[in-house]
Amino acid sequence: MKWLRALTNLVMLTAALAGSQAMVFPGFGRGSDVEPGKTVGPVELLTPEGVQIRMNDYARYEATVVLFLSTRDDATDRAADAINTLYAKYEGQNLPGFPGHHPLLYVAVFSKPEESGREIRAYCQERGFTFPPYRDPSGHVARLFDVHVTPESFLLDKTGRIVYRGMIGSPDSKLGLAKALAELMSHRAIATPFVPADGIPIDKPALPRELKKSNPSIEFSSELIFGPIPGFPAHHGSSITEAPNGDLLVIWWGGSYESSDDQMFFLSRRKKGTRFWTPPEVLIQSPGRPPGNGVLLVDGLKRIWIVWARNERSRPTPRGTGWDECRLMYRLSLDNGVTWSEDKLFYHDTLGWAPRNLPITLSDGALLLPLSDERNGHGTDLSFFLATKDNGATWIRSGIMPGGEQPTLIQRADASLLTFMRQYPRILQSESNDGGKTWTLPKPTSLKNPDAAIGMCRLHNGHILLAFDNSETERTPLDIIRSLDEGRTWSSPLHLESNPGEYSYPSVYQTSDGKIHVIYTFRRYSIKHVEMNENWLTQFDKPN
Length: 544
Prior knowledge:
Blueprint: H1 2-19, E1 43-46, E2 52-55, E3 63-69, H2 74-90, E4 94-95, E5 98-99, E6 104-110, H3 117-126, E7 133-135, H4 140-145, E8 149-150, E9 152-156, E10 162-166, H5 177-185, E11 194-195, E12 200-201, E13 220-224, E14 234-242, E15 248-255, E16 264-270, E17 281-284, E18 291-298, E19 304-311, E20 326-333, E21 344-345, E22 353-355, E23 360-361, E24 367-373, E25 382-388, E26 396-397, E27 401-402, E28 405-411, E29 417-422, E30 426-432, E31 443-448, E32 455-458, E33 464-469, E34 478-483, E35 494-497, E36 503-510, E37 516-522, E38 526-532
Parallel strand pairs: 3-6, 6-7, 10-11
Antiparallel strand pairs: 1-2, 3-9, 4-5, 8-12, 9-10, 13-38, 14-15, 15-16, 16-17, 18-19, 19-20, 20-21, 22-24, 23-24, 24-25, 25-26, 25-27, 28-29, 29-30, 30-31, 32-33, 33-34, 34-35, 36-37, 37-38
């Protein structure tokens, strides 16, 4: 009976479909099975920009790797690192046994019609793929290879014959593409030519995703903040801060020479959103009692402070002397550093006290200002901090650390404090577990120091940067190092400056936008400003 035969055929068709694999695309036939041993002929592909190409030159390479991927599934993401590792292993001009040429050709094929060329190109760039990607919007290449999931890999020999298909796997796997590649490149038979790929059905609809930045960019720029200032040939001792309105402010002293009678403070500003520094303006003049080191800070009331050391040694005095007879002064600005109050004596008896490094704000809101007492002479200097919890109305002196000067500090995640101090021939280190009331006895680190200032900063993500002169005798090179474990271990140093000359007194500062700024003395001719992101410290080899 016709109706019985029709019913029987329907049951058989339903059973066959239930037992079959997922179809490549809605409306696509399953295509013929493509098992290892089949020879692939010319393959028509589209570049992401829409140019049609024909892949057929298999004899040029020892093998061709064809990867079916998708920008829109997690399985491809998980395979990206393995793909890059395998690609790098056999990529290069002088691979042993294959001199003078690239032995493998990698090709990525994206067969979802909804994946645009721009999306595919951006995805491959962010994943660090440096082999050609192609579109297959009609799905004819996926049907040719009988692909059902992504990611899936195919290995073709010099004749275009498929010698492996299936799982990509890990780079050290005993199954999958890695093993097949190793066997082929060693001219051995491929023991397991088929390993089923475990991925996402290629016909599964998927929405575009925000790309995860796995191929980060770097940012770096540098410039001298000012050129020659007539009558002021020497410049040193700079400090930096971000004003409440987002402007960057830098101050420093300039004069005929260090501690000269004409020494005075200058200020330059980089307005928010610009790349240029304003011409230096005279900020502090103190005839007969020249200003020395000074620091900028912003309190909880958004007032900008300058705390500076006034040299009070009787005149005349030799070059570079008198800092053991200085007193702390301060002035305030309520308008982002445009106008300033009169200078006033800071604290009470501050004879011999001098600032150098930037203050920090602790987790409890207290502001700590690093200071040193230089009256005791080289090797017996004292370092300490002044703390305020009321925006400078009152200050409390912390415990004293003997033997080092010009401390720089950070607060760790557990609220403990770490400070480094200037001291020849090694930077000194001390720690506090009670908010700075008491400190451990300073001990030498492995970091060199030619008796020059250092600068440290804790970034928003908890990483720590330290800039210092990496020498026992010279103020060059000026290096920067990074710690991921709160100052317990450090990365290899990178040079900020390595030429002859003095590059000293660095300050490291991170602004609210996450950018890292380093300022320092540049041969005493000027103050140099360097701006970077953290990637500049870690990303060295761009895929090419």
